[in-house]
Amino acid sequence: MFVSFFPRPKLFFASAIVWTALAMALWYGYASDLVGSSEQPAIGIAMFLSAREIWFDLYFALSVAIFAGVWMVFSPHRWAWWSIIGSALILFTSYFQVELSVAINGWRGPFYNLIQAALSKPGSVTLEQLYAGVSTFAGIATVGVVVAVLTSFFVSHYIFRWRTAMNDYYVANWPRLRTIEGASQRVQEDTMRFATTMENLGVNLIRAVLTLVAFLPILVKLSSNITELPLVGSIPYSLVFAAVIWSVFGTGLLALIGIRLPAIEFFNQKVEAAYRKELVLGEDDPARADPPTVDELFGNIRRNYFRLYLNFMYFNVGRYVYLQTDVIFPYILLAPTLVAGKITLGLMQQILSAFAEVRSSFQYLINSWSTIVELISIYQRLRGFEAKIHDEPLPSIETRAEPKAIV
């Protein structure tokens, strides 16, 4: 799954983590101070043209060039340009999209304060001022749209290259793999699903981490405007603590409810493959796909799907209750401060935006759980291929007839 696309995967990913940590330490400890920042942060697309932002872009490119150059010399790989440079480009666009969110958060304060002034004192705000605020947002949004479209186009090619690498690897070992149940499906379908799902989850995880790095300092600063929280009163860094505790609670709750889903999803793929294979054989052999056999195979599908629906019902009850409560949770936190009239409309919008970004980052597992379930199922199926190639025992789930006591 990984060795076909990345050079020496275990060492590669370990070195990537270490190199990233060193690059970040050097940036925050020394390099970022080489270009001073203005006292008043720019609002709008001017934020991305500041000397500090341009210096960071150059620093990032230099760090990637050094890392990629070392690996291309140390362990040449057919797909190195896509797996190393391509991954770095996706990482950079993830960072840039987080910066767009920071820019929009910075725009919210002045703009909503302008609206509050216009509503509270008619005539104090001109039409030109209001349109100027709207045009600032339009500039940020335009950059965001262009980056999102180009990133999506590139990621599509990146995913297909990863699928191609896996496909070539498995096809080269096809004589040993053809006896595995659903072998054709695993090569034709699961490789694409694995690459797509891994890229989506990886990008979302990176974006969640980068969002925390960008917005936690903002939330810490905004917490100074909160007089007290319901039930607990006044505490330092109140919004940060509230976001962490609430997100950890939701993640633990939904992980507990959905812990049985990966095994059921795996068996869904297994019984679907058995049914499809029998129908394909029946196209050429009249002795195959007879009604009793087809009824039995489809009965296995029906039983497993009903089991999946029941478990997803449990999961969705917890998920939707939590997410709906999540909508009003920040207003509950801000209630004492709002009643006391301690913040403006613009400041409230900035707090809500920053709190939502931090909270959603901590809720990575909640937002991705269904996708993680699918990925685990695909991984288990492809892991059977890996075991066959290396003459290892098949994973136990390959030989198990039914999921364990899932009701």
Structural notes for this entry:
With 407 residues, the chain is mainly alpha-helical. The chain has helices at residues 9-29, 51-74, 80-120, 127-172, 174-177, 183-222, 238-257, 261-284, 291-340, 345-362, 364-389, 396-399.
What is shown here, in short?
The chain has 407 residues and is mostly helical.
* Overall pLDDT metric: 80
The main pleated sheet reads as: none
Which class best fits the helix and strand makeup?
Answer: mainly alpha
Distance between the termini: 32 Å
Give a count of the beta strands, DSSP E runs of length 2 or more.
Answer: 0
Low-confidence runs of at least 5 consecutive residues: none
List the SSEs and their pairings.
Elements: H1 9-29, H2 51-74, H3 80-120, H4 127-172, H5 174-177, H6 183-222, H7 238-257, H8 261-284, H9 291-340, H10 345-362, H11 364-389, H12 396-399
Helix pairs in contact: 1-2, 2-3, 3-4, 3-6, 3-10, 4-6, 6-10, 6-11, 7-9, 7-10, 7-11, 8-9, 8-11
List its traits.
mainly alpha, single chain, 0% strand, 407 residues
